[in-house]
Design a protein that fits this description.
Blueprint (H helix, E strand, L loop, with lengths): L5 H24 E4 L13 E9 L4 E8 L10 E5 L8 H7 L3 E3 L11 E3 L9 E6 L8 E2 L7 E2 H18 L8 E6 L2 H17 L8 E7 L6 H4 L3 H7 L5 H22 L15 H6 L12 H14 L21 H5 L21 H11 L2 H7 L17 E2 L6 H9 L3 E7 L7 H10 L4 E10 L2 E9 L3 E6 L6 H4 L1 H12 L5
Parallel strand pairs: 4-7, 4-10, 9-12, 10-11, 11-13, 13-16
Antiparallel strand pairs: 1-2, 2-3, 3-7, 3-8, 5-6, 14-15, 15-16
Helix pairs in contact: 3-4, 4-13, 7-9
Amino acid sequence: MVRITMTAFRSLLSVFLLFLCISNHRVASVTVVKHLPGFNGPLSFYLETGYVLVDEVNGGEIFYYFVESEGNPAEDPILLWLTGGERCSAFSGLAYEIGPIRFVKTLYNGSIPQLEYHPYGYTKHANIIFLDAPIGAGFSYSLNPKGYEVGDITTSMQIHKFLIKWFGDHPQYLSNSLYIGGDSYAGKTAPFITQLISEGNEAGQRPLLNLKGYLVGNPSTGESFYDVNYQVPYAHGVGIISDQIYEVVYLISVTKFMCYNQRNQLINSSLPSFFPLSLHQVIQRSCRGEDYTNPNNVVCAEALDVFSKLTNEEGGAHILEPICILVSPRKSRIENRRFLRDDYLWFSKPEEPPFYCRSYGYYLSYFWANDNSTREALGIKKGTVNEWLRCRALPYEVDIKSSIKYHLNLTSRGYRALVYSGDHDSLAPFLGTQAWVRSLNFTVVDGWRAWHVDGQTGGFTETYSNNLTFATIKGGGHTAPEYQPKECMAMFGRWISNQPL
């Protein structure tokens, strides 16, 4: 007979009570969703929602949607997906971009909007965590208002903490390859988060995450030289501005490039092909600024004003789509593009757009997410978020000034990277993305070529050393999967499986 001392018994009791508390906590914070309001029948995929505490001081919790792979969940990669915008819900990625559901576009009649299965979701190839980050986005919340005072760095650290805790609660996925992904503004923070994970692994942080790489779509870098300046040659190339206007803004562009070269100690031979070296001396005398958001004389200001007026005549997120209703007054294109917010971000209860607008689908999400049956199905904590908004206007510190150094560091250390651009996006045109990719000075291992889906061109791609792939999506807009879902799913599926595009 085995005798247990009182001390040992108390220790065992403490462990049991701790386990009980943890189990109760998990039951309270995790919901397995088998039915969604507006979706016909039970879900054909595994959906889990829940909260993870990432700010103990202020009681800040991040809400997530987790969708298991429709292939082989035990072996397929885990993709953490971040939606663009500084305070935008992950639901946009889930329902409009890469998730397995989408809205049925019908006129809103007061009943719950309808959902249907999306056949081109990335969940065909990966398990995906859609994250309402930063705190204040979607259903994420803070008990103390101070918890909403976050920025790029704070949020990235909280996301890293989220992953450590989430994998601690889901150890069955620890052996799966992990990738970090995001588009638009999140394309700037995704590489920084990837670096935080890498550094945590090297420091011996547990659990050890099986990090393999990252992907970014139509990404911001934080550098106006790439994010803003390349809008000019793009606008000229697609016929939005004339030769005459381009020539004026073109000179400004050359000036800014030379200023950028001087301040970053680059060599003049790195000038893009559309910049004439013969203007070198003139340019050096006029270096007084860095980007189009800060015109330094009357001629520049007038030229940029004309440029903004003309580019405001197209959709921005997709140059071929109609210009649709905005909730807030439309800013000038230069100012609006600086933070890469698309034209359809709702920062308050949306006004109904015309039915032909793509934004009508976003309009439906407001009523779906704020329906009591939806909140009950998703396991939303009562009293935390009174009104769900696709994007929320709260103070946010833009404190990552450039992501390019993280791209360079990560790819140089062996992490895989996919950088892609919808070629009809004028907010973050592929020319700027291609330029910063080439600025890394990696060797081209597979030159510029077309890639195909079902016998048709899906876009164009170039592969570099250090496992870096750049691709365009033909016909894609600012969030490419939203506009060309079949092509993007094929691109992602090939890349994530280590196959050439």
